[in-house]
Description:
This protein has about 240 residues and is mainly α. Among the domains are: about 1-35, no CATH class; about 125-240, Serine Threonine Protein Phosphatase 5, Tetratricopeptide repeat, CATH 1.25.40. It has helices at about 25-35, 40-45, 50-55, 60-65, 70-80, 80-90, 100-105, 110-120, 135-145, 145-155, 180-190, 200-215, 220-230, 235-240; strands at about 5-10, 15-20. It has a two-stranded antiparallel ribbon. α2 packs antiparallel against α3 (about 50-55) and α12 crosses α13. It is elongated and about 80 Å long.
Amino acid sequence: MPSVFVIRIPGWRTFVFTVPEHCNSYHLNHWFRRTIRSRLFQEIELGNDQAALQLARPWRLRYLRGEWGETALSCAIGYKQSALAVELVRRGGMYAEDGTLAKAAMNGDLMVVEALLSAGKHPDEPIKDPIFRGLTPLMWATNRRHPEIMERLLQAGADIHAVDRQGHSAARYVTDLGGTSLEALKVLLRHQPEILWTEMWSGIDVLNAVRRYRDNRDPDALQFMTRKFPELDMDEYLKS
C-alpha cells in the first residue's frame, strides 16, 4: 500500500507526496528530487522552450538546481535544447565550474560551445563531479569523435597537453569507443601534441606512426598504418 506525506511550508506551498509501495532509498531519493524541483526544469525536459524562458529569471538561473544538482543551462544542454541553451547563456545562466562547456563538447553541440566560449568560459574547465575524472572539454570532444569542436577549443586556447586525474592527455582518448579516430588524430596533429610515453596505447602508437611517416617517411611506420587501416592513403591523409 502506498504512503502519503503532506509537507506544508507556511506562506508558500503545500506538497502532497504519494510514495509507491515497493520503493527503495535510491528510487525514493530520485523521485523526491524530481517532485520538488522547479517547474523550469520540467519545461526544459519537455522541450517547452517558451515556457522555460518565461521562468528563466536571473535569480532562478543562478540558484535553482535540478534533481542531480545541475543548473538550468546544464539541463538544457543535457536534453540537447541548443537554441534554449544559447539563450540561457545570453541571460547570464553560465557560472564558473558549472561544467557546461565539457557537457556541450561531450554532446557535440558546436552552437552551445561557441556561445559559452564567446561568453568567456575557460576552454579547459572540466566537469566538477569526481566521477568524470577531470576530463577537459577537449578530452570529451576527442573521446566522442567531434573534431570540429576539438578544433574550436584549440583555437580558443585549450591546453593540448593537459592531463586528467589518471595522467592521460587528449591523445589517449583518440582510441576510445572501440577504435582509433583518424579525424580526431588529424586535429591533434595540426597542433603537434607532445607524446606522453606513460600513455602507451594503440592510439598513441598510431599517432607516433603518423608523425614518424610525416617527418621522416619511415617505412616501418607506413607498414604499421597500412596494416591497421588497409584503405588509408597516408599521403592523401597528411595533405588534408
